[in-house]
Amino acid sequence: MNMLLLYKMIQARFYQYHCEEDALSEEECATLAKQVWKEYQQTGDNLHELIEDAVYEFLTK
């Protein structure tokens, strides 16, 4: 999977929550992307749902 695509998908979810462009640093985005990709490889669940869950969890903690 292209990590740049994964980053874009994560950023798109942040925009859906009406977050500012700088609400997520590159380090945080990389961490979320690695977390999502690891979970996707382990479970094979829907990638969009995994991203949605990760972003929601990030914003609510």
TrEMBL record:
Any Pfam family the entry gives: YqzH
Protein name as catalogued: YqzH family protein
Organism: Ectobacillus antri
